[in-house]
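Aim 2 progress update. The chain analyzed this quarter is reproduced below.
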Amino acid sequence: QKKEGSRLTAFVDEEKFALLPLPNSPYELAEWKKATVQYDYHIHLDKMLYSVPYDYIKYQVDVRITRHVVEIFYKHLRIASHKRLYGKEGQHATNPEHMPRDHKQYISLNKETVTEWAASAGIHILKTVESILAAYRTEQQALKSCLGLMKLADKHSIARVEKACERAL
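Predicted structure tokens:
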């Protein structure tokens, strides 16, 4: 009442400089839930599965759900973010970086990687792998047997598996 000018001039002179610009995207409502990371390094949310780094298995996490994004936090630190899944129940959103090393190796397992490994391991291992791949009707069954051979080489040694393949041939 005792100041000169109108409220608008007072606002422009005294307060307008302190305003921040509006954000680029509009405000989006979010829902928060708690979830426990399962042994398959996924959380179950609205009948969908979202991956979390495998280090957090058995930990309880906070989940922020918006219309388009699912963000997963542990102790206020964001550890994962996924595009929200809609539609058929049971869909997976899995980030390969969240997998343990052994899972990544199993997922990337195909005919080429197995023969590449066998060629680098030894000539008898390569011949054995080729005969295994030719013996099965489905590639998945053959790859499972080849994976067993690879695990034997990890457990014992490549030289020992090479000699065993030589005897088997």
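Residues 139-155 form the longest helix (17 residues). The radius of gyration is 28 Å. These observations will guide the mutagenesis experiments scheduled for the next reporting period.
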